[in-house]
Amino acid sequence: MNILLVCDSPQLQAHLLQVCQSYYGVHVWQDFPVSTPPDYVVHLPLVAQRTLYTSVADMAPYQQASKQVDSLLQQARAWGAGYLFLSSQQVYVAGHRISLQEEDHADAACELGTWWIEQENKISCYPKHFIMRTGYLLDQTSLESLLEKMRQQTWPQDEETFCLTTLEDLSRAILGILLQNFHHPKGLWGLYHYTGHEQSSELEVAKSIRRLAAEHEPLPDPPEETHARSVPRLLNCRRVLDTFAIHQRSWKQDLPKLVNQIYSHSLP
Fold first, then answer.
1. Which residues in 210-231 are b (16+ Cβ under 10 Å) and which e?
2. Region 70-93 average pLDDT
3. Ranges for the RmlD-like substrate binding domain (predicted)?
4. Which of 22, 171, 172, 223 could lock 16 by a disulfide, CB 3.0 to 4.6 Å apart?
5. Overall number of domains in the chain
6. What is the C-alpha to C-alpha distance for residues 51 and 251, in angstroms, rounded to an integer?
């Protein structure tokens, strides 16, 4: 199975390459031109713009990513390759009181949400597509940013709840979808939701990090939880479980490794 990987995050790229290396016969290219037409084009754009604690103010990267979608989709058509696009929960407005399924109407009206919907609409016209919606991503960069805020006693709010997805878990799910589809006689193309398991607030995430960081450095005490939380925007991931038997994994499983990596890299 041959994959052309287009990803703007070195961290996610490294995780996906590592997962692919554990499977015999999976080959990944990261640059044009490719020696053999790939079976899949995997497009994972704007990773930094969807990590936890990231504020999106500049639409320029989105405009560039839109051109990239057009180009890669055209190339996938020419090759007859599958096209997997990593989309976002931003297609929905916040405030839904039940978890959102793939067939629920994408109702975002803001500029950012509309951008994601436009990309999905373009891609869904190509029969051999996967659109994979996810929520907030958790990586080393966002953890380092949070640790710095905690040192300055700038704690996150306890208002919003969400299901985090680590880059390692996301990579595992992406490859699971591609491998099973590769061996399916008709293909399992379409739209799928995938996030990590276990709903949490920003403050709960910070407290978990503080407990793990305690053996490396003392951090200030967190504030009390308010429990005055907004209605979340949660993705129902039942379809990916029923179709591919891919189970959601808690972000807490990968957190000790992420925290240890941060402190090991900071040692002189």
1. bebbeeeeebeebeeeeeeeee
2. 94
3. 66-262
4. 171
5. 1
6. 13
pLDDT tens digits, one per residue of 99-150: 889 999 998 878 888 999 999 999 999 999 999 999 889 888 888 888 888 8
Sign of torsion, CA 81 87 92 95? positive
Local structure of 44: helix, strand or coil = strand
Rounded Cα distance between 41 and 244, Å, is 19
How far is 17 from 216, CA to CA, in rounded Å?
30
Outline where the chain has alpha helix (H): 10-21, 60-79, 111-124, 140-151, 167-182, 202-213, 238-244, 255-266
What sign does the CA torsion over 233, 239, 240, 246 have? positive
User: What residues form DSSP beta bridges with 131?
Assistant: 85, 191
Confirm whether 152 is domain-assigned.
Answer: no
Helix or strand holding residue 27 (H, E): strand 27-29
Query: Which two three-digit tokens encode residue 70?
Result: 């057009």
User: In angstroms, how far is CA 83 from the centroid of its own chain?
Assistant: 16
Does residue 268 sit within a domain? no
Residue 61's domain is classified under what CATH number?
3.40.50.720
Per cent of the chain over pLDDT 90 is: 47
Q: What burial letters (b/e) apply to 100-117, b meaning 16+ CB within 10 Å?
A: bebeeebebeeeebebbb
Residue 153 is assigned to a structural domain of this protein:
no
**Whole domain around residue 172: which residue ranges?**
2-139+163-203+233-251
| Domain contains 128 | yes
Measured CA distances, 54 to 31, 47, 143 (Å): 28, 10, 11
Are 100 and 92 in contact by the 8 Å Cβ rule? The answer is yes
